[in-house]
Amino acid sequence: MTLFLTLASRNLFHDRVRLIATVVGIVFSIVLVTVQLGVFLSFQDMVTTMIDHAQADFWIVPAETKSFEDSSLLAGRERLHALSVDGVTEAIPVVVGYTSWRKPNGGASKSVLLVGAPITADGLYPWDVVEGSRDNLSVPDSVAIDRSYATQLGVAHIGGKAEINNQKARVVAMTRGIRSFTTTPHVFTSLDTARAYLGLPANKANYYVVRIAANANAALVRSRIAASLPDAEVLTSQEFRKRSRLFWLFDTGAGAGLLGSAILAVIVGTIIVAQTLYSSAKDHLKEFATLRAIGSSRTYILKVILAQALLSAVVGFSMAAAIDLALVKATADAALPVVMTPGLTLGLFALTLAMCAVAAVSAIRVVTRIDPVLVFAQ
Amino acid sequence: MKEIMIEATNIVKVLGEGAGRVDALKGINLALAGGELTLLMGPSGSGKTTLLSILGCMLTPTAGSIQIRGRATTGLGSEQLARLRRENIGFVFQSYHLFPTLTAAENVRLALDVRGEPSPAASRKAEAALATVGLAHKAKSFPRELSGGEQQRVAIARAIVGDPSLVLADEPTAALDSESGHTVMTLLANIAKDPKRALFIVTHDPRIMPFADRVLRIEDGRIAGDQRPGERKRGARALKLAS
Q: Which is nearest to A165 in space by CA: A182, A183, A141, A149?
């Protein structure tokens, strides 16, 4: 092994107090960044969960719709128009709206997001049903809720009763894992029941989930549907996802806040690591002067400092990754779990390396400008 | 005829400026030949360390020129001077300047590592250099496990492992007791027998004069004396035989 690595690692592990300070700085920074970015990723996935599960080729949405949850009503003629276009096989209406839920034992009402679609068509229905059946939603006033909201909504099991917008409701199915990214639970029901709860006329809907034949020309079908719907837009699922994410992550400021905190964590971590590397370099000035005196190039000294920084990064990242894994496990059932993907892990490792390399700049400036004559000073 | 390893011509060095200006060296002319151990002696502030720094290519003279084995150093940048040092000059310092986190063998190998010499060959050379200074058995010891004399011998091994044409030593015995100092000087005197290497030692220590082939005296930035004690002895012996 080349000696610059030996020298870097021995310098690093020789001074344990400084090593601990460096590693704590890196761990603090990376864990904080992981939490922020992990929640960001989780948030990003959760805001599109309804769009993801509808498996639409296109969505017909009211013009200027910003997100799935925040929608106005379509005019009502869109479905027939879409079905008249060659290649369209289905145009399934979906009704979405905020309304109030009153627990069976009374008390204050709670806001819920009602999602209604025809039970007989595969439009947007509750998935991962663990109690009861989705088919039971065809009975009027029947709803499905997620088990994680059972306590919050005051219904422990199927068969439980409540009021939605002052109308009777009976829970006939319970799902697992359909969490809302806000504090407002989702409540699934049939299209007709949803219209009744929200007081909508029979032909009204917020969206149409459009599916096309396998051999249809998607671009052509899309342009024909859009041609005569001036008050609506035809979006692919990808476009609708992007729009929802942009709204929730950036228009509301939530994503910017998470990213801002992550950037702040990187800055703080960089400063801590820079400070410890700088003081380490100052403490070893005579050694670096000796290296220079015996003829080492600046590149060699640069390699020693960088190796020291990158070794710190590897040690710090390993510890941070262990803490991150524990956090991922601990928050798995939370409303906004911390998500770790292989891409995020690799990205964080690269970020740690970059952070430590940048942090080494001040130390590098000190040692590469060192005067070798220093070796003669007693 | 002995080969000249380093030649300094009319070296002037001015340190500081204005009221703080010091004329440290005032026209030094000097040539060091291979196979010779030269001592530089003089009072504090006479310019010894400044001259050593200039000969070691760590400090650039204000005027004058240096040639190392015929190659002029004038106009070279700091990286070129560093290269000149690692390829031609070995250093021995008063306080050894060993790396505390490296073993004796690693400290010696460092002089080759900065040259980019491959590890296995460098390790063999380092072991051989440690054997030359009688410390093969301490190869794996860290500096804190060695006595002052042993540390200085490791520093000497580091200075010679790259087979330099010039070894510069700054007060190599100043931090040692007389026995260790004698051992170190015996070692340096043996190293100086190599005709392809010149040894230049800056010292205050009169006990090491018997080891010198040549003694230079520096006063107030000028060479004030240049003696060859051996020649004087040989001359006296020749006169005695003739009479």
A: A141
Cα separation, A314 vs A249, in Å, equals 31
Q: Is residue A245 part of a domain?
A: no
pLDDT digits (tens, 9 = 90+) for A111-154: 999 999 888 777 788 888 888 888 888 888 899 999 888 888 88
- In this predicted model, what pLDDT tens digit does every residue of A44-56 receive, in sequence order? 888 888 888 888 8
Interchain proximity A6–B102, CB inside 8 Å: yes
For residues A258 and A347, state if they share a domain. yes
Q: Report if residue A52 sits inside a domain.
A: no
Instruction: Clarify whether residues A289 and A221 are in a common domain.
Output: no
Which runs of E-coded beta strand occur in A64-109?
Answer: 88-102
Span A234-252, pLDDT tens digits:
999 999 999 998 888 888 8
Residue A311 within any structural domain of the chain: yes
Out of B49, B52, B82, the one facing A297 most closely (by C-beta) is B82
pLDDT at position B114, please? 93
Q: What is the ipTM for the molecules in this complex?
A: 0.90
Task: With CB atoms and an 8 Å threshold, state whether A295 touches B95.
Answer: no
| Domain count within chain A | 2
The beta-carbon contacts of A163-166 under 8 Å, at least 24 apart in sequence, are: A163/A101, A163/A102, A163/A109, A164/A99, A164/A100, A164/A101, A164/A102, A164/A112, A164/A114, A164/A197, A165/A99, A165/A100, A165/A197, A165/A198, A165/A199, A166/A100, A166/A102
Chain A positions in Cβ-Cβ contact with residue B167 (cut-off 8 Å): none
In order of their start, the domains of chain B are 4-242 (3.40.50.300)
Q: Which domain holds residue A348?
A: 3-46+254-376
Q: What is the pLDDT of residue A132?
A: 87
A247 found inside a domain: no
Rounded Cα gap, residues B83 and A2, in angstroms: 19
Selecting from A291, A295, A378 the residue whose C-beta is nearest the C-beta of B83 gives: A295
Does A270 share its domain with A211?
A: no
Cross-chain CB nearest to A7 (options B59, B94, B99): B99
Q: By the CB < 8 Å criterion, does A285 face chain B?
A: no
**Residue A349 pLDDT > 90:** yes
Same domain, residue pair A62 and A186: yes
Do A264 and A156 lie in one domain? The reply is: no
- Residues A103 and A183 grouped into a single domain: yes
Whether A148 and A23 share a structural domain: no
pLDDT digits (tens, 9 = 90+) for B164-221: 999 999 999 988 888 999 999 999 999 999 999 999 999 988 888 999 999 999 999 9
In this complex, is the C-beta atom of B26 within 8 Å of any C-beta atom belonging to chain A? no
Are residue A107 and residue A220 in the same domain, yes or no? yes
**What's the confidence (pLDDT) of residue B144?**
96
User: Which residues in chain B land under pLDDT 70?
Assistant: 231-243
Average pLDDT for A319-339: 88
